[in-house]
Amino acid sequence: MGEGLFIVLEGIDGSGKSSLAASMARSLSPRPVVLTAEPSDGWVGDAVRRASSEDGPPLLEALLFVADRAHHTERISRWLAEGRTVICDRYYASTLAYQSAALGDDMMGWLRELNDKVIIRPDLTLLLDLDPAAGMDRVNGRGAPSKFEELEYLKRVRDAYLRVAEEDGFELIDASLPEEEVLARAMSMVEGVMEMI
């Protein structure tokens, strides 16, 4: 089989990544699709979730996210080699955005250097851009917010995401639009990439 297609969805909490990923997978049927996410469902992903729930220091979390990504990228590479379309809910840009917001903007270069050693470049990265206050409104319905779901923090995360998106050529989608319109825009971008490969 030939190489598959690697699509990544990025955005702050509440931007609709998980819902969009599921809708895209249905839209791409009968093409073989793998839905995956970070932190991964592997043992390193478990360590990431544990560090987060136990309030691990930001530097520890950043390193664990990169370790998880190294392991996860091996699996993604195998799926792509099998000719599958991989839709990933968060990838390296999440670490650049969230961890630089926690550690400081001056850490962005270091975080990028670490990630560059373990990632493969997606064929398409969609940044679901949403005002952090709207994101908070959405996540408040999920119960108690996590430490990553605080308004001032999410504002810094969004700023970092926009910076990374510009540097890395991500496609932006207004995540405040109705779900059907977000899906239509995303699928139009996917079709454009599929025509090019």
Structure description:
This protein is of the alpha/beta class. The chain has a single domain (5-196), classed as 3-Layer(aba) Sandwich (Rossmann fold). The chain has eight helices and five strands; from the N terminus they run βαβααβααβααβα. It has a five-stranded parallel beta sheet with strand order 2-3-1-4-5, sandwiched between helices. α3 runs antiparallel to α4. The two termini are 14 Å apart. The model has no long low-confidence stretch (mean pLDDT 93).
The CATH topology is given as: Rossmann fold
Distance between the termini: 14 Å
How many domains? The number is 1
Q: What fraction of residues sit in β-strands?
A: 5-15%
The oligomeric state is single chain
Strand order of the largest sheet: 2-3-1-4-5
Q: Give the helix tally.
A: 8
Give the overall silhouette.
globular
**Mean residue pLDDT:** 93
SSE order in H/E notation? EHEHHEHHEHHEH
Query: CATH superfamily assignment?
Result: P-loop containing nucleotide triphosphate hydrolases
Task: Provide a concise account of the structure shown.
The protein has 197 residues and is an alpha/beta fold. 57% of the residues lie in helices and 13% in strands.
Q: What is the topological layout?
A:
Elements: E1 5-10, H1 17-28, E2 33-37, H2 43-53, H3 58-81, E3 85-89, H4 92-103, H5 108-116, E4 124-129, H6 132-140, H7 151-168, E5 171-174, H8 179-196
